[in-house]
UniProtKB/TrEMBL annotation:
PANTHER family: IG(IMMUNOGLOBULIN) AND LRR(LEUCINE RICH REPEAT) DOMAINS, LRRCT DOMAIN-CONTAINING PROTEIN. InterPro entries: Leu-rich_rpt, Leu-rich_rpt_typical-subtyp, LRR_dom_sf. The lineage of its organism: Eukaryota, Metazoa, Ecdysozoa, Arthropoda, Hexapoda. Residues 1-18 form the signal peptide. Residues 301-332 form a coiled coil. It holds the Pfam family LRR_8. This is Putative leucine-rich repeat protein.
């Protein structure tokens, strides 16, 4: 009987290995390892978090940080989860900061009847996300880091209500398509990255990012994008990264002029020596696309005339605005 009791007690306590705060007097609880016996979270218990404001779990083996565990967080506002092998995470509405990079997360769950989400920073880098369903409830986000996931299509409508968002990093995913069926106004967005994806073209005519200073579209398959009016859409833009693409030379030439007219610096260069370059950025002429048999050449031919007309109109607007400002100054 004694042996059975000891064995049962041992099994019960082994459901959570190392589940205690390293410094009990600190408001920041650090747990070195969290490893339930079965790898699941059903019977796991977090340490006593009374009076704690942050919880950091450095390692262990846990497939899901679900709603039951989240409800044990109490007054914790900052949750930092190390490499645990997580596949699923539940976001509690009153958390301010969540980090769960370097896991295998492909499911993010949100409370169906919870109050307003207060989350300001979310870091899910190096996981396995394929979509952003449900993320639209995170209306207080300031920073969203989603690099190195498996995202393919991004509907910018998911960010529409994130008016405090300042940093959005979607780099090194598998993104081939950006969608925006209505105008997207993100007044505080300062940094935006699509670097290292598979984009060939996209339309920015529905975007209005007044505070955007840095925009990285490097290392894609981009030939051009539509609807760009830097002065109207991105009046604070100061740096753009363009290298590692296959820009059409005519489009790139017009774009570089617009960027220069708006004091925007191209912050990178192509290191290749086997391409035509404009201001250090590789580009290809229409003839080169045709000779290569690239299947995008038809789209370029169809759009080229319309693009040039659009750029001419935009440049004329800029000149008119500048002339109007000069006339106003002369009357002072």
């Amino acid at each position: 009987l004694l042996f059975s009791f000891v064995l049962a007690l041992s099994l019960q306590t082994s459901l959570v290995l190392g589940s205690r705060c390293q410094k009990s007097e600190s408001k920041n609880c650090i747990v070195l390892t969290l490893t339930p016996l079965d790898g699941l979270s059903g019977d796991i218990s977090l340490p006593d978090l009374s009076g704690k404001t942050s919880l950091q779990i450095k390692g262990g083996n846990l497939t899901a940080f679900g709603e039951k565990l989240s409800n044990q967080l109490g007054s914790v506002q900052k949750l930092h989860l190390g490499p645990l092998g997580l596949r699923e995470i539940f976001l509690k509405a009153d958390l301010l900061e969540v980090t769960a990079a370097d896991n295998q997360i492909h499911v993010v769950k949100f409370g169906s009847s919870t109050g307003k989400y207060l989350l300001e920073k979310l870091d899910l880098r190096r996981n396995r996300l394929k979509h952003l369903a449900g993320f639209e409830v995170l209306t207080d986000l300031i920073e969203l880091q989603l690099e190195d996931n498996q995202l393919e299509t991004i509907d910018f409508g998911v960010f529409e209500r994130m008016k405090s968002l300042t940093k959005l990093n979607l780099g090194r995913n598998h993104i081939t398509k950006l969608e925006a069926i209505r105008a997207i106004n993100l007044p505080n967005l300062e940094y935006l990255s699509f670097a290292g994806n598979r984009l060939a073209k996209f339309n920015v005519s529905m975007w209005k990012f007044d505070s955007l200073t840095t925009w990285d579209v490097s290392s894609n398959d981009l030939i051009y994008f539509d609807g760009l009016d830097v002065g109207q859409q991105f009046p604070s833009l100061s740096a753009v990264m363009l290298s590692g693409n296959g820009w059409h030379c005519n489009w790139l030439s017009d774009s570089l002029k617009m960027l220069g007219d708006n004091s925007v610096n191209v912050g990178d260069k192509d290191e290749r020596s086997d391409c035509e370059k404009l201001e250090g950025i590789c580009c290809d002429s229409l003839d080169m696309f045709a000779n290569s048999g690239d299947d995008k050449v038809a789209a370029i031919k169809n759009d080229q005339e319309g693009m040039r007309e659009e750029w001419s109109t935009n440049l004329e607007k800029i000149k008119n605005n500048q002339n109007q400002k000069l006339r106003e100054l002369e009357t002072l």
